[in-house]
Design a protein that fits this description.
Elements: E1 4-12, E2 17-19, H1 20-24, H2 31-38, E3 42-44, H3 52-67, E4 76-80, H4 91-99, E5 106-109, H5 115-128, E6 134-141, H6 154-157, E7 163-171, E8 177-185, E9 193-194, H7 208-212, E10 219-220, H8 222-243, E11 253-256, H9 261-271, H10 282-285, H11 292-302, E12 311-318, E13 322-329
Parallel strand pairs: 4-5, 4-6, 11-12
Antiparallel strand pairs: 1-7, 2-3, 6-7, 8-13, 9-10, 12-13
The structure holds acetyl coenzyme *A (ACO).
Amino acid sequence: MFRSKIAGIGKHVPENVVTNYDLEKMMDTSNEWIVERTGIHERHFVTQPCGAAELALPACEKAILRAGIEKKDIDFIIVATTTPEHLFPGTSSFLQTLLDLPGVPTLDIRVQCSGFIYGLSIADQFIKTGQYQNILLVGVEVQSVGLNLNTEGRDIAVLFGDGAGAAIITRSDDKSEILSTHLYGDGRYAKDLWVDAPVGYQSPRISKEMIDEGRIYPKMNGRQVFKHAITKFPKVVMTALKANNWTIEDVDLVVPHQANMRITESVAKRLGLPLEKVFSNIHKYGNTTAASIPLALDDACAEQKLKKGDKVVLATFGSGFTWSSAAIIW
Ligand code: ACO
């Protein structure tokens, strides 16, 4: 068995910044409401047309450079996204073409906010068994084009943003290591945060009626999401600690999926962690779903909150419901 590690990380967000004040001009909302309920001040939206693979490419190039490998060394491409370009094939196929890596296997993961850690777990297994040496793992979202930016969609529209983060997972030859990953799901709550249409079991899959009824937009039972998030996040962090014989005091940084600042604050409180030990950048990007963990890791490194040798716990909760954690020596 080999050991695995995150060898390089990269991020990319669209240049176009959309503030809460910009949203006030599109729908009946206010900067105060959004900041108080979510902690979000601004997010980035793509200038159309820009698909997930195109948005991810610069993040991949940075991660490859920082990992000290060359593009041709990549053995496998894994992409986690909720917002692929097309129903099929997956974003990873389009990204492989942009990277000019024909023949390299590609895999899309569809577990929404938990996608990056699910992908990390898959990459970890392939590295540990020795099948692959360098895996490109991407979390990317182009949420903006799928939001209802009118007042009817305001509960969801103010939350989400676009962005991409990429990581190179390699064999470890130093103290850095992915120690454990834990993955969970409960499909009984699938419709508490979902997009109904296009509908895969109906012909046609999309119709004017579906569009008129707003079934193409994400819908969320906010209270149900909040209730489950604030219990599942701490539980899955504790699972990671227990698996590695760590106490919460041993941990240098917890990097949660950036769902909502209120959720993050509640999780920190339940874990007995000071907020300085729980990384947050939601104020800048909003909720970027599968991209939020790699965006946070990149920012945490840039802000020197994450240093080589640090003990880190990553944690997610999101649509599905799915939730997960990873314990890492950075
Ligand atoms: N601007 C202004 N008003 C709004 C907006 C908005 N953007 N969105 C909703 N409202 C209104 C509603 O219409 C409602 O008005 P009404 O009372 O006249 O009917 C009112 O605000 C509801 O506000 P609250 O009383 O705060 O509602 P609640 O306590 O249910 O909280 C909230 C709503 C903030 C969504 C809460 O349920 C929550 O934080 N849930 C978590 C959801 C979340 O963060 N998901 C992240 C994505 S999922 C993930 O990544 C895990």
